[in-house]
Specification:
It comes from Nostoc sphaeroides CCNUC1. The chain is α/β, with parallel strands linked by helices and 250 residues long. The protein folds into two domains: 176 residues, Alpha/Beta hydrolase fold, catalytic domain (Rossmann fold), CATH 3.40.50; 49 residues, no CATH class. It has nine helices and seven strands. Helix 4 crosses helix 5. The longest helix is centred in the middle third of the chain and has 17 residues.
């Protein structure tokens, strides 16, 4: 496989990938970034294992390890892959990923559905306010539809009947964990739980604002911090264009 990129951004949420675009556009001005996308089929069991296996097939013949990065579920897949195949990963950059990787926005959605006797639509509307802040009614309506679709497409094992958990712990390669001080999902307390596993070369950084999708609202500020981390680990910054790859089980 060609080594035509240095960084691989993972996305497992086709409907929400638009919120990655500003950060990826910023990063691609300095480094060669490829996008790997995973879309779960309707008949497929909800699990990130299939995504991890497909990612390994994609990177199996690559000549050198890659810098992996991702937000939310994409970051959880990157983390799981890095633990299983550490020889394939040069560094890890996780955005809005808790030390308990299954603690994502969907876990919060299902927890509210279990706790309160309110409709799916009302919980989704509440989730929009939590994840994006107060938005105009027409924007809220579009975001509710997007989150509703993400519940169907994202490879999470959460449901109304059970919330699942993934292994906690660190990784052998350098790792950066990013969060936002105004994110109600991966809040400061949850984010700082990572300190139990960070190594001296690792980095934890919080964006002052931006809610759960802080990389969308503050792409340059987030990008500068990530580029600084990569530069410390010998990733040369060059003018480059973003590449794109997609994977599904269709």
């Amino acid at each position: 496989m060609s080594d035509s990129f240095d960084v691989l951004w993972l996305n497992a949420s086709p409907i929400l990938k638009r919120f990655d675009k500003p950060l990826l556009e910023y990063l691609s001005g300095y480094i060669s970034v490829a996008q790997w996308e995973y879309q779960q089929t309707k008949d497929e069991a909800s699990s990130i294992d299939q995504a991890v296996e497909l990612l390994y097939e994609f990177l199996e013949w690559r000549d050198r390890p890659v810098h992996l990065a991702g937000h939310g579920m994409g970051g959880a897949i990157a983390l799981t892959f890095a633990r299983r195949f550490p020889q394939k990963v040069r560094s890890l950059a996780l955005l809005a990923v808790a030390a308990q990787p299954a603690n994502n926005w969907q876990a919060h959605y299902y927890f509210q559905r279990q706790l309160f006797s309110i409709s799916r639509e009302l919980v989704l509307a509440s989730s929009v306010r939590s994840l994006f802040g107060n938005q105009p009614p027409h924007t809220t309506k579009k975001l509710v539809a997007a989150l509703d679709k993400d519940l169907e497409q994202s490879p999470t094992s959460h449901s109304l009947f059970k919330l699942v958990y993934l292994p906690k712990g660190g990784v052998s390669m350098p790792m950066m964990v990013c969060g936002s001080k105004t994110d109600p999902v991966v809040n400061s307390t949850v984010l700082h739980d990572w300190l139990n596993w960070l190594k001296p070369e690792d980095k934890l950084w919080e964006c002052p604002e931006g809610y759960h999708f802080f990389h969308y609202f503050y792409p340059q500020q987030v990008g500068e911090e990530i580029l600084s981390f990569w530069k410390r680990h010998n990733l040369h910054l060059l003018e480059a264009s973003a590449l794109s790859f997609s994977t599904s089980t269709n």
